[in-house]
Amino acid sequence: MNILVLCTGNSARSIIAETLLNDIGKGQLTAFSAGSAPASMPNPFALKVLADNGHDTARARSKSWHEFSGADAPVMNVVITVCANAAGEVCPIWPGHPTTAHWGVADPARLTGTDAEKLAAFESCYLEMKARIEDFYEGGINSQNAPMRARQIEMRFPDSQMITD
User: Fold this and answer.
1) How much of the chain, in percent, has pLDDT values that exceed 90?
2) What is the DSSP letter of 68?
């Protein structure tokens, strides 16, 4: 079973979600992430928060969603947007017509301030995403219940907002 996590830049929230889905799930599914206008690389604060929490970030990279829309791409069972921009954009046609869900999490990369304030915003994003993903996996996940669970998380957790100045 495959899940694709989308965001505009694929540098922070979607990278964090991809890593958490793969690590917490321990093989129950394969998560990928991508963006409509991907950054050149993952945000260093996202990588630091992941590493500080024991996650391997060696394979983390920003990717275009076009990598996952071609004929040779893995078929996705669920596509989750984590930012309002990606949720509102016209997405490619995904092979297999996966279930879609929106897990809106405030963008820590938009925060201005000191490095300590930025790091705190990324830690908050990490914890918020981790809570959603732990809830998603509660009771076990399989190809039959994953789409329903993704939509339940969408309803259970409202979009978060972050002060950006």
Assistant:
1) 56
2) G
Question: Which CATH number is correct for 2-156, 3.40.50.720, 1.10.1670.10, 3.40.50.2300, 3.40.50.150?
Answer: 3.40.50.2300
125 is catalytic: no
pLDDT tens across 107-159, in order?
Answer: 999 888 999 999 999 999 999 999 999 999 987 888 888 888 888 888 888 77
pTM (two decimals): 0.90
Burial of 59: CB neighbours in 10 Å, binned 0-12, 13-18, 19+? exposed
Q: Which residues contact 108 (CB under 8 A, 6 or more apart)?
A: 12, 13, 43, 45, 46, 118, 121, 122, 124, 125, 162
Q: Which of the following is catalytic: 15, 20, 83, 150?
A: 83
- Return d(Cα 42, Cα 134) in angstroms, integer: 23
pLDDT per position as a tens digit, 56-86: 999 999 999 999 988 888 999 999 988 866 5
Write down the catalytic residue from 7, 46, 47, 141: 7
Domain ranges within the chain, ordered by starting residue: 2-156
